[in-house]
Amino acid sequence: MADALRALVDAVGLDVAYCAELEADPDSAWTHHFPTARSGHLWIATQSGTIWVGRGDETELLQRGNAALIAPGAPAWVGTSSAHDPPPRVSDTDAFFGLPFHKSGVHHGSARFGPLASEALPLPDFVSTIEHPVADVDVALTLQHLSEQAAHRWPGPQQDALARMLVVTLVAAWRPPVLRDNSLTRCINAIAEPGPPPTVPDLAAITNISDRTLRRRFSAETGLSPDAFVRWFRTLAARRALLNGDDPAAVASRYGYPSTRAMRRTLTRVEQTVTRLPSPDEQSRILR
Question: How far is CA 198 from CA 134, 186, 189, 270, 272, in A?
């Protein structure tokens, strides 16, 4: 059976890049400020120590193995304390190579979501893995692999792939609102499966509940009827392609519509329902 989270992330679009591991003198107090004008999300993860991260007026303490995903639109920083200390410095160098060797264990990079992210993945401005130990295990293992890549001749592709693992771990732990009801997991996985869209009786049979109960659960958790949710989920990729400027006729053909007009008719129907989808609540900032 398909993986609904994978299908959702793939349909929305996600481009993740690794930037660097910060360097600083050991036991020094420092604050690193990121460019305010960045257009995408920022991810930060700590491998070996406790750090503070902030966005605007929000601050969060990250322990070893924690990660955070920070939205653009406000100043962001990371440091050894909640105070704003001087930038990190490296005063000592390796005597043989003449290179700095003080690694902070703090890794960072960028994450860019597609144009439908605010609808399908309505992330809050600040997401972290605090109080989510399963995610922290994945973060710690991924950071270990990231550090090992530095010794390779061409580490870039592997580092970017591992950075994507970190960001997807954050998204999975936070859980998109439409995927938070565990009783609907098998239904939504079936909706993500390629092939003819499942009917309400098909979905009810998967979860061994009545059609009426299924409709009630979908309405309560997603804001949409099962049929409307199927249409919404399965048109995300086509809508993203159109927003990215792809030729409408090519998009219609690629996603199985008999004509551009038929595709437009379906998409118009879908777009009339998207305001019913759930938004993140304030408590979702810290994962539980």
Answer: 32, 12, 11, 17, 22
29, amino acid identity: A
Helix, coil or strand: residue 262: helix
Q: State both tokens at 14.
A: 């996600």
13 and 45 together in one domain: yes
Q: Please say which residue of 174, 198, 220 terminates a domain.
A: 174
Q: Dihedrals φ, ψ of 17, to 5°? A: -135, 145
HSE-up of residue 79 (Cα within 13 Å, Cβ side): 21
Domain tally for the chain?
2
Looking at residue 285, what DSSP letter applies? Answer: G
Neighbours of 138 (CB within 10 A): 20
pLDDT tens digits, one per residue of 227-279: 999 999 999 999 999 999 999 999 999 999 999 999 999 999 999 999 999 87
pTM, 2 dp: 0.89
CATH number of residue 158's parent domain: 2.60.120
Q: Grade residue 84 by pLDDT with cuts at 50, 70 and 90.
A: confident
Q: What is the pLDDT of residue 37?
A: 87
Cα radius of gyration (the chain):
22
Strands (E), 71-154: 76-79, 103-113, 126-128
pLDDT digits (tens, 9 = 90+) for 87-112: 999 886 554 455 545 789 999 999 99
Which structural domain range is residue 191 located in?
A: 179-285
* CATH code, domain carrying 249: 1.10.10.60
